[in-house]
């Protein structure tokens, strides 16, 4: 069973400047709700019991959002506003599930994952990248079902336009397992159009094996000098770990760019 999820939150959010100059991008409201809460709700709905946030000293605002008890208690005592009481109870429910670890240098997603090594208990865990919202269908829940059936690693996937392949991790498929699920032959981080083995991109939901930590410990920096989870995944594939690409059914919203972020609120408002 997949019971733990990790969420890298130490990124600088430069693609969203100036919104992120003094503010954590994951707390920016999307249709009136902080983006991170959509990710937490996806986890809770898919049966996750513990969520590890990887933050940095610069992103402590995220921790404060969940640990603002004195403030809430004072307001509630004074005003007894049922709406505030309800919101505070929601925050408390989230807080109970969250652990914080630190990645103070932005050395890449792979390095962020490595920081959670001593907290991961089971053979597999879930990772969600908070820039990627998937609405209308719970992608993590579908991926956990696939994992339970095949007992293997799973990644969310989507076709992208050929000219944009250098924005994503791109994979080559090996074999069709069933509708929407394929085994992966290889994966490459942000390839040029010429290098790309296809136009099938990895989207920010992963079920990863605990063995990835051994790979990450030895991982050399890759594209842009960062330690990429994609490169560690390729090392595992080389050693015959089975990775399944799952073409998810929901709608993808890229909240990591200004254009995508603006669009995400109106898409969610339509639900
Ligand atoms: C990360 C991964 C990339 C993946 C993408 C999905 O990139 O490194 O392989 O395709 O997330 O959103 P980032 O968005 O951090 O640049």
Architecture overview:
The chain is built from nine helices and 13 strands. The chain has 271 residues and is an alpha/beta fold. The strands form three sheets. A five-stranded mixed beta barrel has the order 8-11-9-10-12. Strands 2-3 form a two-stranded antiparallel ribbon. The chain has a two-stranded antiparallel ribbon with strand order 7-13. Strand 2 (29-30) and strand 3 form a beta hairpin. Helix 3 (69-79) packs antiparallel against helix 4 (82-97). The mean pLDDT is 97. 1-O-phosphono-alpha-D-glucopyranose binds next to strand 11.
CATH classification, class level: Alpha Beta
Fourth CATH level, the homologous superfamily:
Spore Coat Polysaccharide Biosynthesis Protein SpsA, Chain A
Task: Please name the CATH architecture.
Answer: Alpha-Beta Complex
- Find the CATH topology: Spore Coat Polysaccharide Biosynthesis Protein SpsA, Chain A
| Overall domain count | 1
N→C terminal distance: 31 Å
List bound small molecules: 1-O-phosphono-alpha-D-glucopyranose
Helix content: 25-40%
Report the oligomer: single chain
Number of strands: 13
The H/E string reads EEEHEHHHEHEEHEEEEHHEEH
Quick check: average pLDDT? 97
Beta-strand content bin: 25-35%
Features:
single chain; 271 residues; alpha/beta; Spore Coat Polysaccharide Biosynthesis Protein SpsA, Chain A; five-stranded mixed β-barrel; two-stranded antiparallel sheet; 13 strands; 34% helix; 27% strand; binds 1-O-phosphono-alpha-D-glucopyranose
């Amino acid at each position: 069973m997949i019971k733990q999820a990790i969420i890298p939150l130490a990124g600088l959010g430069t693609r969203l400047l100036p919104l992120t100059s003094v503010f954590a991008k994951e707390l920016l409201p999307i249709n009136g709700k902080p983006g991170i809460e959509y990710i937490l709700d996806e986890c809770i709905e898919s049966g996750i019991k513990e969520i590890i946030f990887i933050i940095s000293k610069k992103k402590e605002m995220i921790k404060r959002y969940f640990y603002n008890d004195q403030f809430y208690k004072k307001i509630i005592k004074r005003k007894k506003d049922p709406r505030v009481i309800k919101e505070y109870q929601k925050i408390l429910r989230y807080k109970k599930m969250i652990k914080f670890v630190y990645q103070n240098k932005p050395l890449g997603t792979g390095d962020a994952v490595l920081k959670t090594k001593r907290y991961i208990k089971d053979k597999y865990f879930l990772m969600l990248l908070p820039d990627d919202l998937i609405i209308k269908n719970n992608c993590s829940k579908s991926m956990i079902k696939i994992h339970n059936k095949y007992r293997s690693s799973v990644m969310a996937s989507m076709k992208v336009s050929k000219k944009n392949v250098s924005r994503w991790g791109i994979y080559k498929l090996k074999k069709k397992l069933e509708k929407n699920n394929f085994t992966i032959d290889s994966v490459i981080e942000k390839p040029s159009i010429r290098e790309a083995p296809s136009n099938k991109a990895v989207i920010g939901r992963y079920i990863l094996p605990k063995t990835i930590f051994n790979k990450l410990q030895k991982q050399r920096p890759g594209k842009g000098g960062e330690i990429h989870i994609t490169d560690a995944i390729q090392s595992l594939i080389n050693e015959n770990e089975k990775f399944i690409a799952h073409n998810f059914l929901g709608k993808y919203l890229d909240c990591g760019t200004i254009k995508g972020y603006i669009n995400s609120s109106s898409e969610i408002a339509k639900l």
